[in-house]
Design goal:
CATH topology of the domain at 107-368 and 376-402: Aspartate Aminotransferase, domain 2
CATH superfamily of the domain at 107-368 and 376-402: Type I PLP-dependent aspartate aminotransferase-like (Major domain)
CATH class of the domain at 107-368 and 376-402: Alpha Beta
Strand content: 5-15%
Shape: globular
Largest sheet: 7 strands, mixed
Structural class: alpha/beta
Distance between the termini: 75 Å
Strand order of the largest sheet: 2-8-7-6-5-3-4
CATH architecture of the domain at 107-368 and 376-402: 3-Layer(aba) Sandwich
Low-confidence stretches: none
Radius of gyration: 25 Å
Bound molecules: pyridoxal-5'-phosphate
Helix content: 40-55%
Number of helices: 17
Order of helices and strands: HHHHEHHEHHEHEHEHEHEHEHEEHHEEH
Length: 544
């Protein structure tokens, strides 16, 4: 046997066998188990795997490919080491950001396609996973109120990807044939000041330029100011600019602000008629966070069968009231890896009318997506060529596992925890909630120095230019509290919170910062929420 044949024989052990071999399958599972076992050894009371450590990019940057192979054991060790120092997002003491903790079903949903590599490019590669994509899109269409017979959906590389699709299709409608001819005319994106920077990413990558993103004012409740939006539409029209898309943010990243989508839609209809536009400016709902609240469409808030507390019920009803209009959007972005309890990446781009995909088909002569005729070739219009089914199966897994009631329970619990926290913040004269008009799983709040009138201070910080220096001092106080609380949490005491250095902009131009509690973990409980207050107040005493 030649040297290479010997090596090959060994290396074959490193792959799952293509033909049935239960013993070797056992080895595959055992390897996974071994990895999980080592990760488990990194766990402690703290909401982090292992311990925080300084970065070692200098060493990392000297890495070279070794000449010989290494045992799987050693490789597993190396991989597990990559998780050392990482926050455990499902931990009840971890309330840092909008990151879901994946369910077991959704993890299995990721593992299976990872082992068999189905490509969603076309159904010739894998019929079942292509059907799964159509199933998930149909379920979500039904959930948000789209006509499932007309709607269509496609998984892509993140919420940013969904926005890119939405704006791209809108651009084709506003400036015909950019796909073929290139962009020869300016076009703009309209969104609120509280929208996600993914709008700028899309504008940059589509060749519109980041400067073509027109951010209009947001109201105190972080929703778009419709008067300002109308003004911006009229100004653009008067200047001969086409509108590639109006982006309605349905759940902003920091504050969970929700735009008035029905208002945006009515405005668009009115302007199309009045200005006799020869196109209909595309409305994209960036609902990557807020979509999950659609599970409360049809919930009997009066009977409240799940038994949420009064405050929670009011919060859920308020959000559902806004989210029920999602069907008015031309396209919607949905992240299962944010509020859908799926692993990264699981993002669905939905179109109210799947015919709109024809805007971005590479060869216009083909009609590739009419799956009711038994053909499904999303590869003819998807940005990706190799497109993984992991996100699709993770999403399907959770939709099947949880059903409407399971989602209502998990989302309702997150909001219930946030409401408990707000109740306690409200009882403390030295603390104040910054997003009290937003009713999601996230609470932005600030601590203030002794003697501050927390009823009046927020208004002064926002509007009083003579308060600028005090505002900066208060920002600094909250940053130091955050750092202290974070260090405590990493040492296994208290709760890891998030921090935003810019939740709003004061009229004087100064940013206003805030501590952030983002609860999504099914394991969060009342005790943990109280300890947020205890630790923030202790940190405030320490740093003052
Ligand atoms: C996170 C987020 C995005 C970007 O989504 P990714 O999945 O992180 O690419 C876009 N819009 C909003 C409102 C977000 O919160």
């Amino acid at each position: 046997m030649s040297r290479y044949q010997e090596l090959l024989e060994q290396l074959r052990q490193a792959f799952p066998t293509p033909v049935s071999n239960p013993v070797h399958d056992g080895y595959v599972v055992f390897s996974l188990l071994k990895a999980l076992d080592r990760v488990d050894a990194l766990k402690s009371q703290a909401p982090i795997l292992g311990t925080p450590r300084p970065a070692a990019y200098d060493v990392a940057a000297t890495e070279k490919l070794a000449s010989g192979a290494r045992p799987l054991e050693e490789v597993i060790s190396e991989l597990v080491h990559c998780l050392d120092g990482q926050l455990i997002f499902g931990h009840p003491r971890s309330q840092v950001n909008v990151v879901a903790t994946p369910s077991i079903a959704s993890i299995v949903g990721v593992v299976l396609p990872s082992m068999y590599n189905p490509n969603l490019c076309s159904d010739e590669a894998n019929l079942g996973c292509s059907e799964a994509e159509v199933r998930v899109a149909a379920m979500i269409a039904d959930l948000v109120g789209f006509d499932p017979q007309r709607a269509g959906g496609l998984f892509t590389f993140g919420g940013t990807g969904t926005l890119l699709y939405g704006v791209k299709i809108g651009l084709e409608k506003a400036v015909p044939d950019v796909f073929e001819q290139g962009l020869k005319q300016p076009a703009i994106i309209l969104c609120s000041r509280q929208s996600h920077y993914a709008c700028a990413t899309a504008a940059g990558w589509l060749g519109l330029g980041q400067q073509s993103v027109r951010k209009v004012a947001a109201r105190d409740d972080n929703g778009i100011d419709l008067v300002a939006l109308e003004q911006a539409c009229r100004t653009a029209h008067a200047a001969g600019e086409r509108i590639a898309a109006i982006v309605a943010t349905m759940g902003t990243t920091d504050a969970f602000g929700v735009d008035d989508l029905a208002g945006v839609h009515a405005l668009r209809e009115r302007l199309v008629a009045e200005l006799k536009l020869d196109y209909r400016p595309h409305i994209h709902a960036d609902a990557v966070i807020g979509w999950a609240w659609s599970v409360f469409n049809g919930y009997d808030f009066a009977a409240n069968p799940l038994g949420f507390r009064g405050r929670t019920l009011r919060a859920l009803a308020g959000t559902q009231n806004a989210m029920q209009h999602l069907h008015l959007a031309d396209s919607i972005g949905i992240d299962f890896h944010k509020t859908g309890f799926a692993p990264y990446i699981s993002s669905l781009f939905m179109l109210r009318d799947r015919e709109d995909f024809s805007q971005i088909v590479r060869q216009r002569s083909t009609t590739p997506y009419l799956f009711h005729t038994g053909e499904y070739h999303p590869g003819l219009f998807s940005l990706e060529t190799s497109r993984s089914a992991t996100g699709v199966l993770a999403a399907l897994a959770n939709l099947l596992l949880l059903g409407r009631e399971g989602f209502q329970t998990l989302i309702g619990h997150a909001v219930e925890m946030a409401e408990l926290l707000r109740e306690q913040i409200g009882a403390r004269p030295e603390l104040s909630v910054m997003n009290d008009q937003n009713h999601g799983p996230v609470t932005l709040f600030r601590a203030y120095p002794q003697g501050t009138d927390t009823f009046a201070v927020k208004h002064r910080e926002q509007h009083d230019p003579s308060f600028r220096e005090q505002l900066k001092k208060n920002n600094d106080l909250n940053r130091r509290i955050f750092e202290r609380v974070h260090a405590e949490a990493m040492a296994g005491r208290g709760v890891a919170l998030g921090y935003t250095d810019h939740c709003r902009t004061a009229d004087c131009g100064e940013p206003i910062s805030a501590l952030k509690s983002y609860v999504l973990s099914p394991f969060a409980d009342e005790g943990r929420m109280s300890s947020v207050i205890t630790h923030v107040l202790a940190a405030r005493r320490e740093v003052m």
